[in-house]
Design a protein that fits this description.
single chain; alpha+beta; Nucleoside Triphosphate Pyrophosphohydrolase; 2 domains; four-stranded mixed β-sheet; three-stranded antiparallel β-sheet; 4 helices; globular; NUDIX_hydrolase-like_dom_sf; hydrolase; NUDIX_hydrolase_dom
Length: 212
């Protein structure tokens, strides 16, 4: 019989705009007790936007945690209170790539670092694209972000060569290749995103979950 890892107590250690950190006391097997620190996260969405030439929209963005620029999919936090995942994905595609899509489906859901963080991301496939005006970015990493169209097969090779390292991009690119090659089926956008983190959203009340 599987052990029930019950939370015996919980303490909030840090409450920052984008993340929080808590310490949980857990009941462990063999009547043991252990503490686990958990990074709370807002959750995220990302988009593999594919044009008629089988090229995908990608951005090159500075990530301070690794002190380098990474090639990534258009993506962002689910930081608007009660915003649906698909609405967040559409918003991010406009903001980061200046694109809208007539066709949407779900490629995959991933937990990025389950050993210590509750971050989960839903990755969408967007097709039948239309270019729209991209809002101006000011004063943060997005103001320095580079946009490029990359062939899907080339992107797969960049994953295998270690040139694309962002875990969400890796999962999305490989899933998109399977689906668009006829080796897999994308899911409907109405399917629930059960992995979406709720810890921060339950605690904060304002419309912008980063500032509440």
């Amino acid at each position: 019989m599987a052990h029930d890892f019950r939370v015996l107590s919980s303490e909030l250690l840090l409450d920052a705009p984008i993340i929080s950190v808590r310490k949980d006391e857990l009941s462990m097997p063999d009547d043991q007790v252990a503490f686990r620190e958990v990074v709370e996260h807002l959750g995220a969405v990302a988009v593999v936007a594919v044009n008629s030439d089988r090229k995908i929209a990608m951005v090159n963005q500075y990530r301070h945690s690794v002190k380098r620029r990474l090639w990534e999919l258009p993506a962002g936090l689910l930081d608007v209170k009660d915003e649906s995942e698909i609405a967040g994905a559409k918003r991010e595609l406009v903001e980061e790539a200046g694109l809208e899509a007539a066709s949407w489906s779900v490629l995959t859901d991933i937990v990025t670092s389950p050993g210590f963080c509750e971050e989960a991301a839903r990755v969408y496939l967007a097709q039948d694209l239309t270019e729209v005006e991209r809002p101006a970015a000011f004063g943060d990493e997005e103001a320095d972000m580079e946009f490029s169209w990359v062939g899907l097969d080339e992107a797969v090779q960049k994953v295998l060569a270690g040139d694309i390292n962002n875990s969400i991009a890796v999962a999305g690119i490989l899933a998109a290749q399977q689906v668009l090659s006829g080796n897999g089926t994308a899911r409907d956008v109405s399917e629930p995103f059960d992995l979406r983190p709720q810890s921060i959203a339950r605690r904060r009340q304002g419309p912008d979950l980063k500032k509440s």
